[in-house]
Amino acid sequence: MQMLLNHHRLNYLFSITIQKSTIKTLCLLLGLCLLLNSANARVNAETQNIFSEKLQKMIDLSFENPDSIITQLNNYTIHYLSQADTSKVIDCQLAAITILKDQLKYSEAFDIAWTNAVLVEESGSPMQIMKSYRLLGELYNSINQGKHSIDYFNKALAASKHIYKTDKKKGNELITGYFNLVMACNKYLERAAASSYLDSCYMYADSIQLNSIARGYIDTEKGIRYFLNDDLEKAEKTLLDVKNRYESIDDNDALFNKDKRFLVIIYWFIGDLYAHKKQWQTAAMYYQQSIDAIHNYKYHTIQEFDLLYKLAQMEAELGNYAKAYQLIHSSKIKHDNIYGNRSDIHQELYEIKSRHKQTVIEKDLEIAQKNKELYEKEKKLNRIKTYAMALIALCLVTLLFFINHKQRKKHQLRNAQNEKEIETKNKELTSFALQFIEKEKQVAELCEFVKDNVKDGNNKFNIIAKANKSRDDYWQEFNTRFMSLNQHFYETLNQRFNDLTSNDLRHCALIKLNFSTKEIADLMGISPKSVNMAHHRLRKKLALSQETNLTTFIANI
């Protein structure tokens, strides 16, 4: 009986294991999909970083041969458009805008920037969105469109903040966002805002421990703030410190070499400071150094006419009128070449402003339409996602229910079969025991008859010995059958109570089968009183209290 019960438990555990293994398999498949997606995303990110570094090198080399670099970028754009690689197309266009802006080709730069902005807003990464807004801000600042410039710089700053929240290593981008607003607000006389943005620059520069070269840009703006607030001593000390820092950069230092171009701005502002202090000779020296830096680094070339005019003023103050006149004449020629009514750049700027008005209107309408279409698409996509998830969940639940139902049915069928087997075996064992009782009666009667009627002592002994042997054989068969149904019964008793005799174990087996005192007496060939005494001794060996029922205790083993 115990063996069948154990078999029944194993089958039940096996059915549960199958259900658990099915769920584990589904979870493993889901985990594998997530792992593969994560690996693909990591590989794509590494590839994108390598490509971005390549584009940055092209931008750095564009001062030597800009037209060749632009042609190369156009070829890249066409190639990646054919591959539908939107991310690389955007990066190529952003690089082209940067180079065209530095080459004063504003019309071409704006054409690409406006087209690129739509592409970026549709499918760009947060970093690409930030760069796109930043370049538009710089372009509008170059043509003195202050409102649009500050608006785009603010959008770029918002994108930088979003990036910084997810990746604290991008603190430089956040500082650049604030720094662009500092310069724009200073240019368009929004000094309170410029001061607030500058404080934010320093706060984040301290948090990421910005290196001294990168910090020089911020320190320059701090020097300008001192200058605007008439704190000339602090302004001079700050600007000269930044100048020394940048002049000390080794020309062979690949990491910081391009930062040396910023000396154009530093010399310029130091010249303004000394001009304000009426130190004409020193001011003229720094204006000249700024002009020389423009020629050396091909940086801020559009501002050369302004520097020539400032230098002319200093020469006039020093009494060098002929030189001053020559400088003013050179300044006017450069100004007319850039902003004169007949200059190509002037015509470009005029066309840009005209196109800008029309583009803004068209873009607003386009954005409104796209937003509407996007909203409808999102609603439809969300409905599809909801239905798909519900269908997947329903299929999963149905599958688990089916598996569970099938296992439960098998389990119930096995239970019914096991119970039937146990019932049959119990009947057989009871029948055998009853036969045993009947045999015991016959053997007892035979022994009595032999004692009374057989005179020969040897024959009498042999007959009684055979009768006792027959009784032992019956007991042996009874134990075999009993143990086949209660496999661990004797083993458990002996482990828990090691002083039980074979006679005690027989009593326990008969109690387990729920035989009465009289039936046990008949089976064992003793009186009912002897059975009760044996049970009393058995209770002591089992250490049972008065409240514990012996039959119930043994039935539970």
Globally, the shape reads: rod-shaped
Per DSSP E runs of 2 or more residues, the count of β-strands stands at: 0
Question: What order do the SSEs take from the amino end to the carboxyl end, as H and E?
Answer: HHHHHHHHHHHHHHHHHHHHH
Poorly predicted runs of 5 or more residues? 1-20, 25-45
Average pLDDT metric: 79
Beta content comes to under 5%
Structural class from helices and strands? mainly alpha
Fraction of helical residues: over 70%
Note the gap between the termini. Answer: 12 Å
Q: C-alpha Rg, in Å?
A: 50 Å
Task: List the quaternary state of the chains.
Answer: single chain
Number of helical segments with 4 or more residues: 21
The major β-sheet equals:
none
Question: What secondary-structure arrangement, pairings included, does this model have?
Answer:
Layout: H1 2-61, H2 66-82, H3 86-102, H4 106-123, H5 126-142, H6 146-166, H7 171-187, H8 191-207, H9 212-228, H10 232-247, H11 263-276, H12 280-297, H13 304-317, H14 321-339, H15 344-453, H16 457-485, H17 489-496, H18 502-512, H19 517-524, H20 528-541, H21 550-555
Helix pairs in contact: 1-3, 1-15, 2-3, 3-4, 3-5, 4-5, 4-15, 5-6, 6-7, 7-8, 8-9, 9-10, 10-11, 11-12, 12-13, 13-14, 15-16, 15-19, 19-20
